[in-house]
Amino acid sequence: xxxxxxxxxxxxxxxxxxxxxxxxxxxxxxxxxxxxxxxxxxxxxxxxxxxxxxxxxxxxxxxxxxxxxxxxxxxxxxxxxxxxxxxxxxxxxxxxxxxxxxxxxxxxxxxxxxxxxxxxxxxxxxxxxxxxxxxxxxxxxxxxxxxxxxxxxxxxxxxxxxxxxxxxxxxxxxxxxxxxxxxxxxxxxxxxxxxxxxxxxxxxxxxxxxxxxxxxxxxxxxxxxxxxxxxxxxxxxxxxxxxxxxxxxxxxxxxxxxxxxxxxxxxxxxxxxxxxxxxxxxxxxxxxxxxxxxxxxxxxxxxxxxxxxxxxxxxxxxxxxxxxxxxxxxxxxxxxxxxxxxxxxxxxxxxxxxxxxxxxxxxxxxxxxxxxxxxxxxxxxxxxxxxxxxxxxxxxxxxxxxx
Length: 403
Prior knowledge:
CATH class of the largest domain: Alpha Beta
Shape: globular
Number of strands: 15
CATH architecture of the largest domain: 3-Layer(aba) Sandwich
Helix content: 25-40%
Radius of gyration: 22 Å
Strand order of the largest sheet: 2-8-7-6-5-3-4
Oligomer: single chain
Largest sheet: 7 strands, mixed
Strand content: 15-25%
CATH superfamily of the largest domain: Type I PLP-dependent aspartate aminotransferase-like (Major domain)
Order of helices and strands: HEHHEHEHEHEHEHEEHEEHHEEHEEHEH
């Protein structure tokens, strides 16, 4: 098991002498350990320079530190080739990159795009936009009442017209861990391109991209104790060589004349302009930190907190819990009788407890549940069962106020 007290010492925000924080919104963004903060600030005060173009010492160091993170991603997720690792601003940008650079080039009116009803808006809206432009059709794996996908209908949805499938590895609302290996295999049998939104999965479970054998996999740094403003797209190099650039500018070119340009090799072909250098370096420090703690230990800790949280919250008869997947991450969506989730979140905040309230960038899920919003508690390596006890107590106190 994790030594949470020791881990909390690594995170400055949990070491405040006044107003101690109980942070239960890691599915939205995680807190940052000092080593990640130091990695970012060290770049700015010790070797701030542009990469790939400076011939002086600090520029060469910046380039080396930035490029070394591709190797860390490769090791962390068992990626076949560092050239498959593209740095973006976020999971959202990574998914948009595929939608525009691959989708607009290869989809047409005879194509079908297969998604699911549990997708985050970032894995829904880009495909809606591309479908509108290419006249491709959208099809959806339906959602069941227990927060899982209706896998019984998958064979009726996948056909020779299926050109691309994009689904989440782990739901940001229910925490449901989807059987992406099976879904990828089904899609690939029909020759479809496969895209996985791994934003919620990578921080919590061991992901092996070589084993998954998907064509694209996207995730973000800020959900895995890394900085905001950095994401990763892992893609098949041969596919990305065939794709058109997502953005034009410096670094992504090979040759430029007034009339035309040719493109750099992958991954730099998709990293136009001065990139988020400090954030990528911070992501490398975050990967190092998670590796030092152990992703399997983090997962076991998550499961322990999840089971405890479900047990404690279910004892309050005024709480409605949503989702009941057997394989799920440490995420609990819920509502409290006669209290709007926004009101609940504000009242919990007076006790120093942070939860998420809203539609969680997943309005179709809210429509399926018949609610406008839910509250959501999500746990990570720095949380304890005492945090959950405090949550339950604060909910009861809030309910008494509203009563």
